[in-house]
Description:
The protein is an alpha/beta fold. The chain is 33% helix and 11% strand. It contains 9 helices and 11 strands. The protein has helices spanning 27-45, 85-88, 108-116, 131-135, 171-175, 199-221, 249-273, 281-284, 314-330; strands at 78-83, 95-96, 103-104, 120-123, 139-141, 144-146, 159-163, 193-194, 197-198, 226-230, 276-278. Helix 3 (108-116) crosses helix 9 and helix 6 (199-221) runs parallel beside helix 7. The longest helix has 25 residues, at 249-273. The protein starts with 26 loop residues before the first helix and ends with a helix.
Amino acid sequence: MDVVVRGKSHAAHSGMVGGPGYERVMAPNRIHRTVVAVLLTVLTASACVDAPPAPIAPEPSSTAALPPPGAPPGSGPRYVAMGDSAAAAPLVPDQAEPVGCLKSTNDYPSVLARRIGAASFTDVTCSGARTEDLVSHFQPTRTGSVPPQLDAVTADTQLVTVTIGGNDVDLPTIAAKCRRTSLDVPPCSPDLVVDGADSISTAIEAKADGWSDLVDDIRGRAPSARVILVGYGTYVRPQGCFPDEPINPVDAAYFQARVDELDERLSRVAADRGVEFFDVRPLSVGHDICAAPQDRFVEGFAPVSPAAPLHPNGAGARAVGTALADYVAAGR
């Protein structure tokens, strides 16, 4: 979303990793719109690179409170992280190689790996990834073409997390057209329903078989691995917070509803394929783009913390990674 969404996501996102677009007429905001458009373009054009297990990155150098240490290094499972910008946390310090992936060394997989003391950790998450980029597609990035993320999963892999789907249904591309600076401009979401059929809902259902196949492919490569599909979070509260965030209240409710629908479908895929689903939404309620800056887990249209617009910030990545570590340790 990973806004959610392709060019993360973002978000969604990829993960919402993406979100509503930009259309202000004042000169300063035209400049800001251009910056955000460039970021979204890079996020949606990026793909991930496969890499051998690498040393786990250190905790970020920051005065912010960090989670307490978890298991001793090397005592945990061999872990592979897959997904889009919602997992990769683009522009959160520090940026990892390859640069074209816009991946952070402090994304939620990295936080999880440190806390569970992963014996090895391969993070192949990448901003802009779609399911085909995980399975079979050599996706180009601005630093070169990279192999499918699935190549990182081997027979001895013990834990796999996956955040995917937002880009598959084009949430960021669609949402990017829906920024509003005046309520005099009609919302965009009614145009997405034609003859009673919602285009995003239709796409979610159409892509579900691909997500099931992805899980099967992971299990085929690592039959004993614990596989966890990690969902997309709460990006915006009901009715939004216009004008603090420039999205029509009707559209705010609509796009979060589509994120919720995507999460529910991913949860059903997990149940059907006998793997797990980790729901990020309860964790992120009250920490959406409308929250006070110090309380946000995801940044708004104009980030106040290092992160891509409408994508997880460092606090959000830490929160998800820490909650996942507790979940993994509990064996749930």
